[in-house]
Amino acid sequence: MHTLNPTLWRTCRVLAGANRIKLLRQLxxxxxxxxxxxAKTVGVGRPYASQEMRRIQSRGLIRPAKxxxxxxxxxxxxxxxxxxxxxxxxxxxxxxxxPAERDADLARIAAGLAHERRIxxxxxxxxxxxxxxxxxxxxxxxxxxxxxxxxxxxDAGFVAERGRMLSFQTxxxxxxxxxAKLLRQGIAR
Length: 189
Known about the structure:
Radius of gyration: 18 Å
CATH superfamily of the largest domain: Winged helix-like DNA-binding domain superfamily/Winged helix DNA-binding domain
CATH class of the largest domain: Mainly Alpha
Number of strands: 5
Structural class: mainly alpha
CATH architecture of the largest domain: Orthogonal Bundle
Number of helices: 10
Largest sheet: 3 strands, antiparallel
Order of helices and strands: HHEHHEEHHHHHEEH
Shape: elongated
Strand content: 5-15%
Strand order of the largest sheet: 1-3-2
Number of domains: 2
């Protein structure tokens, strides 16, 4: 079997979509639904739902199956994608333990790592706390871009600022914990 390694930042970009989180919740509540049923339940058009399901599937978080003439989806991790099982487990834990009103937390936390520069900044801060000047030397970019990326990481709960020092922290959320673990293990690119 060939292992697929989708980038973590692209997977997070998919998980940062509110409608994709709604689709995942519906599949969590009732696995084995067709695109038409999911579209109706979530309140989006069928072509849009189909496109979003393909995006989620491309990250290894759902699996399609033929059921009569229809294709149905279930939240089953693709064994070829090493990050899929731990991420899906974290998503399931969040969906089980938190009400639907808190689904935006999943999208917000995922958005924190939904850019390759934010992944690089998070990894750098995991090594040891740094100042913004040190980060700019290590990860060259415009200071305004650094500010934006750090704000997004902080909003997601991955960065804390104490005085002039920035440090990595693990958000107290199942998805945040799973993403931090993947970063620490170096599994995800």
